[in-house]
């Protein structure tokens, strides 16, 4: 009889019910504000307008645990809601917001260490402050990695100003989860909720492509980076990127073509369709894919890993890797797999 498969949901978001009102403190309506609309929900407000409606699953740990038990999820990896990254803010205000969220996530993990793993956030608009808060979040609070945005105020992740951050992350062996935010072409996506359906996958591909083409992975080969939403459009763009690398030698900054480096990165499984997941496995290998759902938002997969279960060609060992073991390996927590 097969052993039970450990199920880790790597891609979930959380926000404190007591999220700080920095808009009032700093007189700046660009800061996200949590406006409770009822006992079971709230709206995230920006500039006095609703940015996103959320349910109390975003902060109610009891409900979160109930959902996990109902859906067969052993562990959730908690990360902030991307709009709260607020890289546009003054560095000290950004640091305040990062510290508040890191303290909150660490407190939830401390409350239920067998069910939750925490990822923090840092103010990347000031790399020195970001490194200091990364140090605190990981080495003092005990968080196991960081979520970072796909760009920093319009700078791609290969911008030279960010290199010292990636150098420190590699030195300390800190996993990074890249989530799209402030998507490219936003001015063309006000209708149809295209920001979520088209903007985010395109933004993620640009972020991943920037890392791949930059030479960062030659310079810092031990960097651990995972991209949300299956890498967005990246899997389907790789052949075109390889062709560009081949025909334009003047742009090359890497020893190998882009597809070589894409296999060194990790990707969550949030692509919904088994055909897409199979394509990712063919491109990157099953060892690089991590189950994640985007809990508790409307676009989430329920339960996490449903697309993995629906891919009939997977072996039990491959399913075991994607459902949980890859996540724990990425986070440096292999021992949790044997304790379950």
Show the helix and strand layout:
Layout (H helix, E strand, L loop, with lengths): L7 E7 L7 H5 L6 E6 L2 E6 L2 E7 L5 H11 L3 E6 L10 H21 L4 E5 L6 H13 L5 E5 L13 H9 L4 E4 L14 H21 L1 H4 L5 E3 L6 H14 L10 H5 L3 E3 L5 H11 L4 E2 L15 H4 L6 H15 L3 H6 L1
Parallel strand pairs: 1-5, 5-6, 6-7, 7-8, 8-9, 9-10, 10-11
Antiparallel strand pairs: 2-3, 3-4
Helix pairs in contact: 3-4, 4-5, 6-8
Walkthrough of the structure:
The two termini are 17 Å apart. The protein has 340 residues and is an alpha/beta fold. A hairpin with a 2-residue loop joins strand 3 and strand 4. It has a single domain (8-333), classed as TIM Barrel (Alpha-Beta Barrel), CATH 3.20.20.140. The chain is 41% helix and 16% strand. Helix 3 runs parallel beside helix 4 (127-139). The longest helix is centred in the first third of the chain and has 21 residues, at 91-111. This is 2-amino-3-carboxymuconate-6-semialdehyde decarboxylase. Pathway: Secondary metabolite metabolism; quinolate metabolism. InterPro entries: ACMSD, Amidohydro-rel, Metal_Hydrolase.
């Amino acid at each position: 009889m097969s052993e039970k498969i450990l199920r880790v949901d790597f891609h979930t978001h959380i926000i404190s019910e007591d999220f700080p009102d920095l808009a009032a403190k700093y007189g700046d309506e660009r800061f996200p504000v949590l406006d409770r609309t009822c006992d079971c929900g709230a709206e995230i407000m920006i500039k006095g307008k609703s940015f996103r409606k959320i349910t109390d699953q975003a902060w109610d740990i009891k409900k979160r645990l109930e959902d996990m038990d109902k859906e067969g999820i052993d562990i959730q990896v908690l990360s902030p809601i991307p709009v709260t990254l607020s890289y546009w803010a003054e560095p000290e205000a950004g640091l305040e917001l990062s510290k508040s969220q890191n303290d909150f996530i660490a407190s939830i993990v401390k409350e239920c260490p067998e069910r939750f793993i925490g990822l923090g956030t840092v103010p990347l608009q000031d790399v020195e402050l970001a490194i200091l808060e990364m140090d605190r979040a990981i080495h003092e609070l005990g968080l196991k990695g960081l979520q970072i945005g796909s760009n920093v105020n319009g700078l791609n992740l290969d911008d030279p100003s960010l290199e010292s951050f990636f150098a420190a992350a590699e030195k300390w062996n800190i996993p990074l989860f890249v989530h799209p935010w402030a998507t490219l072409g936003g001015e063309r996506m006000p209708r149809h909720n295209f920001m979520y359906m088209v903007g985010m996958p395109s933004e993620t591909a640009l972020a991943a492509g920037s890392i791949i083409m930059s030479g960062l992975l030659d310079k810092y080969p031990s960097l651990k980076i995972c991209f949300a939403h299956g890498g967005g459009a990246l899997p389907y763009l790789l052949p075109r990127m390889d062709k560009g690398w081949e025909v334009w030698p003047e742009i090359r900054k890497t020893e190998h073509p882009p597809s070589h480096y894409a296999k060194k990165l990790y990707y969550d499984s949030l692509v919904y369709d088994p055909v897409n997941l199979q394509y990712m496995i063919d491109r990157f290998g099953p060892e690089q894919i991590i189950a994640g759902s985007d809990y508790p938002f409307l676009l989430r997969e329920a339960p996490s890993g449903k697309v993995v279960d629906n891919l009939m060609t997977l072996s039990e060992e491959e399913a075991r890797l994607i459902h949980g073991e890859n996540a724990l390996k990425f986070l440096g927590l292999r021992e949790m797999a044997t304790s379950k």
